[in-house]
Amino acid sequence: MSEAEAVLRLVVAALLGGALGLNRYVHHKYVGIRTLSIVALSAAALVLAVMPIFSSDGVSRVIQGLLTGIGFIGAGVIVHGRHGDTVRGLTSAATVLLCVATGILCAFADWVLVLSLSVLSLLILIFGGPVEKFLIARIGFSDGGDRSGRGDDDA
Fold first, then answer.
1. Do 78 and 18 form a contact (C-beta atoms < 8 A)?
2. pTM exceeds 0.90, yes or no
């Protein structure tokens, strides 16, 4: 792989992470453009760094380490309410994981999968909250469970 191709993969990872971060920033969440750009860029850089050195087994171990390690950042953006009756930050935590996946796929230059992942994830982040609210208002829930959206980021 040429240096230019490696830089392209890093730039795409950072830009896509930033696009996901923009959604979180607009919704005043704990993670934003800089955080998610860095997460996706870091994942891509680490995978790119080990690809020429290790076998596929070694690259697999690096990816496993990334996925395990990112759980700590994800856990950091999940906040429990004062009385434990609400949980916030789940969508942001899931988006952090999504940025790692984006970075990994950019490192492998799987552009069809990167594009599909990016489009689908942005559609979910942009339209998922309004669709949930519409369905709750339209259909309602009779099981007594809390479906108010309080258990998520509300967008």
1. no
2. no
